[in-house]
Fold this protein.
Amino acid sequence: MHSLEIKDLHVSLTESPEKAIVKGLSLAIKTGEVHAIMGPNGTGKSTLAKVIAGHPDYTVTSGDVLLDGKSIHEMEADERARAGLFLAFQYPSEVPGVSIANFLRAALQARLGEGEELDATAYYKKLYSKMDLLKIDRKFTSRAVNEGFSGGEKKRCEILQMAMLEPAFALMDETDSGLDIDALRIVADGVNALRGENLGVLLITHYQRLLNYIVPDFVHVMYDGRIVKSGNKDLALELEAKGYDWVKKELVHA
């Protein structure tokens, strides 16, 4: 079992250190668990995911993030990825001229030691196995990464990347953003197919609707840079019914 622990994390913009975004957030996740973070726009949800992944636009001013008890603070983004972290972007980038199959092959090759070579037969066996699991047509991997993709196809591409890289923890940043109901189900089916004791998921979302399809073990409400309320899936339904103003009013009267 692996663990991801966020300890009293404080984060500011690198170019504007006086602008605090995350303000003392603590959270512990284990493999096998799905945690959802909900909250209004501008409260620091996406910043949290990017900071864990090692985005240079943000600076940790205090606190720490521990992977299996070890700080990742000094690790570059690629080192964090190799250590077992995966970030699914809200708006995935296009990589023109590079097929999905070659992109994934390069990503797996980069994880091998110097002088080691990825076995092509084993690679394609694994690729086709994961595509079958996710119900993805095998022709899909001949397309350039995200080039001309619909929202659902971009998310499907990310789920395939996650399946192939087999991270310990997947950080899914607003993965339902801009998706219609069919695309949402594609993403949910993919995540649910990969869900299990070897994967921990941090699912960042603004709306409850995604949680109808990916049912979380824990739900946390983030407000003004920190987690202010935690519970089970019922908390998401309560938020949907009452809105985020309800949380604000509770904090005022606390």
Summary: The longest strand covers residues 3-13. The mean pLDDT is 88. The radius of gyration is 18 Å.
